[in-house]
Write a structure and sequence with these properties.
The complex is a heterodimer. By secondary structure, chain A is mainly β. In chain A, 0% of the residues lie in helices and 57% in strands. Chain A has strands at residues 4-7, 10-14, 19-25, 32-38, 44-51, 56-59, 62-67, 72-77, 86-93, 99-100, 104-109. In chain A, the strands form two sheets. In chain A, strands 2, 4, 5, 9, 10 and 11 form a six-stranded mixed beta sheet that branches. Chain A has a five-stranded antiparallel beta sheet with strand order 1-3-8-7-6, with no helix packed on it. Chain A is globular. The N and C termini of chain A lie far apart (41 Å). The model of chain A has no long low-confidence stretch (mean pLDDT 94). Chain B has no helices and eleven strands. Chain B has strands at residues 5-7, 10-13, 19-24, 31-37, 43-50, 53-56, 65-68, 75-79, 88-95, 101-102, 106-110. In chain B, a hairpin with a 6-residue loop joins β7 (65-68) and β8. Classes of the chains: A mainly beta, B mainly beta. Chains A and B meet through β4, β5, β9 and β10 of A and β5 and β10 of B.
Chain lengths: 110, 111
């Protein structure tokens, strides 16, 4: 059974810092991995999708990497801004639809 | 192209009543997924549907919950005889088969 773990559960950083969020999964037989952002009381916004054959994806200040063999992904956020404050969710897709981690709650302090 | 739409956004039901949650997928998307997010928990998969077919319902509670995606109209998640433990955010997602796009969710409160 696939399990997804995200560390840390919460993170507070000053504005301008670069930061890394971690995601690990137990079953490496995945089709893809998605990173989402969720603002309080809101839905999910897809940030990046990495296919199982890919190593990384980039969008603006965000870079996500995937190491399928070790069951790990990282989301790198460059030059963080207060508007980046949200919960970041990692999810993997395999033989079943998306399995989510519990998320990392990020606060970027101005 | 409008995104995934869910209604209502907020729903309050008394114990024992029925809750109906609606999801309209993005245009051109024939795959619909329902997820539930309990307070302080991660999102959990409930059911995966394509038009008129349930593909995977392994995450659905065995009783009181049902889902459909008719040939015409939105997908419906129905919860009969709601209990307090059903209070949660219910999210719908749609896809063409790969990347999933999520709606804003329906927040169900059972009093």
């Amino acid at each position: 059974k696939q399990e997804v773990t995200q560390i840390p559960a919460a993170l507070s950083v000053p504005e301008g810092e670069n930061l890394v969020l971690n995601c690990s999964f137990t079953d490496s037989a995945i089709y893809n991995l998605q990173w989402f952002r969720q603002d309080p009381g809101k839905g999910l916004t897809s940030l990046l999708l990495i296919q199982s054959s890919q190593r990384e994806q980039t969008s603006g200040r965000l870079n996500a990497s995937l190491d399928k063999s070790s069951g790990r992904s990282t989301l790198y956020i460059a030059a963080s801004q207060p508007g980046d404050s949200a919960t970041y969710l990692c999810a993997v897709s395999g033989n079943t639809p998306l399995v989510f981690g519990k998320g990392t709650r990020l606060s970027v302090i101005a | 192209n409008a995104g995934v739409m869910q209604n209502p956004r907020h729903l309050v039901r008394r114990r024992g009543q029925e809750a109906r949650l609606r999801c309209s997928p993005m245009k051109g998307h024939s795959h619909v997924y329902w997820y539930r997010q309990l307070p302080e928990e991660g999102l959990k998969f409930m059911v995966y549907l394509q038009k008129e077919n349930i593909i995977d319902e392994s995450g659905m509670p065995k009783e009181r919950f049902s889902a459909e995606f008719p040939k015409e109209g939105p997908s419906i998640l129905r919860i009969q005889q709601v209990v307090r433990g059903d209070s949660a955010a219910y999210f719908c997602a749609s896809s063409t088969g790969s990347e999933q796009y999520f709606g804003p969710g329906t927040r169900l409160t059972v009093t």
